[in-house]
Amino acid sequence: MSHKIINPSTSVAQHPAPQGYDYTIGPQQTLPDLPQSMGPSSASTFASTGISTTGPSAASAASSTNLASGPSVYSSSLHPLAHTQQVSLAAYAFLFQEMVAQARNASKSVAEIELRLHRHGYHLGVRLLELLNFRSSVNASSRSAFFKTSTAGPSSTSATVSSSAPSAQLHGYHSHGSGDAAGATAAAAAAAAADDGHALAHSISHMKRRDLTMVEILQFVHSTVWTYLFGRPSDDLVKSSDRDNEFMIVDHAPLLTRFISSTNVQCDFFVCGVVEGVLDSACFPCAVTVHSVPDDKFPEKAVFVVRFESAVLEREALRA
Amino acid sequence: MAIQTILVINKSGGLVYQRDFSASAPRLSSNEYLVLAGTLQGVVAIASQITPKSLQITRKTGSKSGSDANHSSQLVPYVGALGSSAVPAQELGSFMGPDYFNEAFTSWNTTGLKHVTTDQNSLFLYQTLTGVKFVAVSSQSATSTMAVSIAENLLRKAYCLYVDYVMKNPFYEPEMPIKCELFDKRLGELVAQL
Q1: ipTM above threshold 0.85
Q2: The dihedral of CA A156, A157, A159, A164: what is its sign?
Q3: Which of A64, A289, B146, B151 has the most CB atoms within 10 Å of its CB?
Q4: Nearest to B181 among A258, A261, A265 (CB)
């Protein structure tokens, strides 16, 4: 399943020249970044230098139809063309390998390595909660509308942007400061900014509801977070039978530690950190640990144990 | 073709991996294996030295101009169905094909030793671009080109496993003996499928 989603990265066909880092897409390939103006001539230079442009674009088209079968804003990037952007599993593995090696060189004990990995993951988790909730708040129509305006070509929009943007900012600032400044002009300025396609946030009518119960937030981790990170939901979400505050997320074949032979260091502590980061910043303070539970069918099975603090349980009892 | 032993020799001629697959494999001491690895390394180096210079040059220019006659001599045909159908797609490492690779490949071992055959045994050698050598010892005397290409395919798959399970393991020190459980396991599966 995962090999379908994480493929060697291919260049995005007919992508407009990226203008800086776009937080809704993430890092982009910038190498074949040729100005739009030299469209027809650039094609000929490609052909003459022998770089085949048809191969990757055909492959990416095929994979995009493959992935578009079940489009969900939860799992995908917001950009309509972003479905073709994939990460190579090998690159992912090498990056993680280097991270573990670095943690290992800097630490004196096994527990310290795990703590470092955990900390790395924690920072990722804190950001991930924000990002994924933001993405799921954008519905398909506003997304396509937003990206249509932004892909209209640099030459046509740049003139209007340069003329209207400073004034719009100024108006917005004034209305904020004085309070009673003309609301109409502020609204118009906001509308103009939205027309320019500079803030996707303007097209969000309402944010996704916050997850308030333990089960809801764990479902979010189990499905949304896991799909975003590993291309599939985790294999199981289980509640402990003897302790109320304990839940278990089961992964039959953890993607990150797929190539790492089991040693006494548990590299999955990175994922623990991610989960703990998500839960902590969603106001569910907890401790997450991982245990490898190999069985006959899944020799690399790992169980992530989430232990919520008692305050969470008390809050849950009050709500009920 | 019963594979008895697989060895991995690093680029400086040190033995980094050795594993016997059948009980009938000749029992060599670890020191003898080290000597074998060093000897093979030396033979490969000498073999590439004694290849006539003119032959090396014509080969190089031939492959550059892409003439098929020269090219095909270095192309190893893909031998599918090395018992690989039993492996579900997800079990594979980072390679996309159902069988790690599924087309003919160019042999990188153009000037060195490729195989040694005696009446009882044969030894096949696969060299990578970086100078790592994979050696398989088989209990049959195999001289046909088919057997050689099967062995090359097998060793190339072993190389794929090495790339995935050894090089991507943060606890492996390059050029040192390989002690990776997953590599052991996958290599065992690969050889058992033959």
Answers
A1: no
A2: positive
A3: B151
A4: A261
